[in-house]
């Protein structure tokens, strides 16, 4: 079975600041400049956090409407991975999202555990969807954790709490590959089908990408989550 995407074909450049507050970000020393992310996204997210970044802006929209161009799916997955990983750290992420107008009307809700974008394009009621996303967003809305011999996902994107627990090694292996995107046909079909049914994986062109995040900052005691 193939592993996750590891080859970085082009850099992802973001702007970063040391504070969440736009007014504070205007003070001397708060702007970290444009940061070029060329390595694996897990490492780059850690690097941004450790450098003091608490507000990060992606200059280009994450485009899920036009994935036919070479490298388009890989670029989209790379940007989504950064948004997911920074959301898990409660970093303020300023980004834009373009969805395929022909996609299911609730596609945005699949991504609603992520920091809400500044602009949403594609759906017929994009403004209304974005408003609902912003009003209903909170940290820990869809997360996963690794326990001794099991993986558990806790998902509140749909209004109720849904749990998915997997003990089989093939599920653990698949998650390791899916976290930063992998060709969909490289994942065991039965495992992928289960994840797709639970809407824990997003198909981006020919890639499959893992939606939940491993939270880095709890909003309350872990037992309450």
Q: Could you describe the 3D structure shown?
A:
This protein is α/β, with parallel strands linked by helices and 225 residues long. 29% of the residues lie in helices and 24% in strands. It folds into 2 domains: 12-138, no CATH class; 144-210, no CATH class. The protein is globular, with a radius of gyration of 17 Å.
The percentage helix is 25-40%
The pLDDT mean sits at 91
What's the SSE pattern?
EHEHEEHEEHEHEEEHEHEE
The total number of structural domains is 2
Distance between the termini: 33 Å
Number of strands: 13
- The helix-and-strand class reads alpha/beta
Largest sheet: 4 strands, mixed
* Sequence of strands across the biggest β-sheet: 2-1-3-5
> Uncertain spans, ≥5 residues at pLDDT below 50?
none
Proportion of residues in β-strands = 15-25%
Number of helical stretches of at least 4 residues? 7
- Radius of gyration over alpha carbons? 17 Å
Shape: globular
């Amino acid at each position: 079975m193939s592993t996750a995407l590891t080859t970085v074909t082009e850099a992802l450049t973001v702007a970063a600041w040391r504070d969440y507050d736009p007014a504070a970000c205007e003070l001397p020393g708060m702007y970290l400049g444009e940061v070029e992310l060329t390595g694996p996204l897990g490492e780059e997210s850690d690097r941004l956090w450790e450098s003091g970044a608490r507000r990060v802006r992606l200059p280009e929209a994450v485009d899920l409407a036009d994935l036919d161009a070479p490298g388009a799916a890989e670029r989209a997955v790379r940007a989504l991975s950064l948004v997911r990983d920074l959301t898990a750290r409660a970093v303020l992420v300023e980004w834009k999202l373009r969805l395929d107008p022909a996609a299911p009307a609730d596609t945005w809700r699949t991504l609603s555990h992520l920091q809400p974008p500044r602009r949403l394009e594609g759906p017929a009621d994009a403004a209304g969807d974005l408003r609902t996303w912003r009003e209903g967003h909170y940290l820990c809305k869809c997360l996963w954790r690794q326990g001794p011999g099991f993986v558990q996902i806790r998902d509140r994107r749909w209004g109720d709490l849904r749990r998915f627990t997997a003990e089989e090694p093939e599920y653990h292996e698949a998650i390791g590959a899916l976290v930063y995107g992998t060709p969909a046909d490289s994942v065991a079909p039965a495992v992928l089908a289960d994840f797709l049914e639970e809407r824990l994986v997003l198909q981006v062109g020919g890639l499959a990408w893992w939606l939940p995040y491993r939270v880095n900052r709890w909003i309350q005691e872990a037992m309450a989550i």
